[in-house]
Amino acid sequence: MVKKQLIMEKALELFARQGFEATSVQQITEHCGISKGAFYLSFKSKDELIIALIDHFMMQVIADIDHIVRGDIKNEILLYKFYYTILQSFHNHSDFAKLLMKEQSQTLNDELMQKLHYYNSLLDKTILLLLERLYGKTVLKTKYDLMYCVKGFMSMYSHLFLFFNLPLDLDQLVRSLVEKTNILAEQASNSFLSKELVQITSQAMNEKISIEQILPMIDQKISELEESIEKESLILLRQHLIEPSLSPAIVKGLQENIRNHPHCKWIAYLIRRYYGDIGSGPMSQQ
């Protein structure tokens, strides 16, 4: 296991038991069986470690639901798949999900809060795409209110199985949320939120992805991965980003190769976003 991954996994165990504030770097290094010097070779501070954990968790969630919303899943089951994927992710990573919900408004500093705000804005963008795809003009006036309702459902129902240890029938829960969302989308007519109000608090919604953002991440992953199909796919995608030469089918296949790797999923998301933002190239045709 790469030392950085070891530190993240062991630190999460301590954070889940004690919280961010009460856990020291000394405790983390002792739990990992490494020196402080080895810790600081991987992370400059405890805050940087927490940011890395937030990045890892949120990248998985955002990348997964974005793939669903932009994919070819039939509209009849799209909302079900959306809710199921995100709630299952919260359940599978319950320790960290609980930690974020409990501590994000108490002990996190400005930099960490900005990181959470960034991912929240990306989540807003994906939910809006979902609503526009499912309901079109029906929610033209109410989609921003509906977006907040969807986020509220995700948050409040997650609390039930994260903090109260209730038996979880995920299928039943998701079907209930799908029904509620459809009723709101089809019946609600009064709106409170406007595009302008939402954009004031969600500046990242219009942030464009650039090659300059993607290439350093690809280079880092190429250096970290052992020889594998994911590494070879990253190399080919990197070359294609710089000098496009591959067919849309090949690029799509390469993206699928990396999308299911937990440490490459975010790169696949950014590549998909990049081609969507420029409105051209093989990925925009997906």
Automatic annotation (TrEMBL):
Pfam families: TetR_N
Keyword Zinc-finger tagged: no
DNA-binding annotation, residue ranges on this chain: 24-43
PROSITE patterns assigned: HTH_TETR_2 (PS50977)
Presence of keyword Repressor: yes
Record domain HTH tetR-type: where: 1-61
One of the record's GO molecular function terms: DNA binding
Keywords, comma-separated and alphabetical: DNA-binding, Repressor
Record-annotated membrane-spanning stretches: none
Descriptive protein name: TetR family transcriptional regulator
Species of provenance: Heyndrickxia oleronia
Phylogenetic placement of the source organism: Bacteria, Bacillati, Bacillota, Bacilli, Bacillales
